[in-house]
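Good morning,

Both structures are done.
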Amino acid sequence: MRVLLIVVLAVLATGCVTGGATPSPFPRPASRPETPPEALPNGGVTPTGTPPTRTGGYEISGTALSLRGTPYRNGGADTTGFDCSGLVWYVFGRHGIVLGRTVAEQYRAGGDVPPSDLQEGDLVFFSTTTPGATHVGIVVGGDSFIHAPASTGVVRVEHLSSSYWGPRFVGARRVTP
């Protein structure tokens, strides 16, 4: 009986190793080894360990699109629920790009992009509750962007030129690795 108990405990103890579980917090990509983690947003912790080999607007928008239907959660930054900036932080982190966690921090990242030059993976910002950038989404192509709105409760795609989002657009940023 004692041997059986030891075997069962040994199997249970190795479950994470054989199941491919990732320890938390996730390791930070080695893209900026000279910067100490405490100097990076969120202490350098990104949502994943290993970034994909290719990172561009197409890959970033594809990752964002794979999260459609995820519930809205105020303050959420993982697949159990996202707020708008948490979605952006998570998606870019999946590609090894460290961004700030808030809309204001993300609005200062990268470089300005004129509306006529928007590309997949660009960040688009809107004024929804107070003047200035208060909401963020990711361009997925053409006139479409993906975001985590509180109104319907799930990550979804909408049109930049819609009667709601068009007048609230305040700018766009392009963040490259």
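Second structure follows.
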Amino acid sequence: MIRYTIDSKRSRLWALARSSLHPIRVETDGLEGYLDAESADGGMRLGLPIHVELETALIRSGNALLDRELERHLEVRKYHRVIGEARELQAVDPASGRHWVRGDLTLHGVTRVLDAHLSLRTLSDGVLELAGERTIDMRDFGLTPPKLFIFRVYPEVQLRLRLVVSLSRS
């Protein structure tokens, strides 16, 4: 297996929540971490470990009122990082880059086991892209859905992840 490092500028996390007024969209870069991968069966195969981190303060919607509410609910001064760590991994179809992963997601000081399907593909010489999505319920992480005036946010949040990784430099 070869160690790859996440490109913080090219990698993205998107979160989409619904509210009683309009959808709430969050997009952020600044993801950090690493993963292992190797060529196999005509494609790329992931290996363990896979480790992803994000500073909680980077989670922003672009709306100042909503961002203050996000910061307050996420308690960014107390819970500085969101951490994802893969524990189990299975190549579903190495030729197409499809993988199944199960691991821990730590958000707001609460760790939950989640699973998801991921796709891995080669972008250019030595650069790989890993993408996947999963819906979570913020209440599972000790978070109460925000309310602003009559504006209500629903607890389900769709997360979409795109990691761009390159060979680690020693």
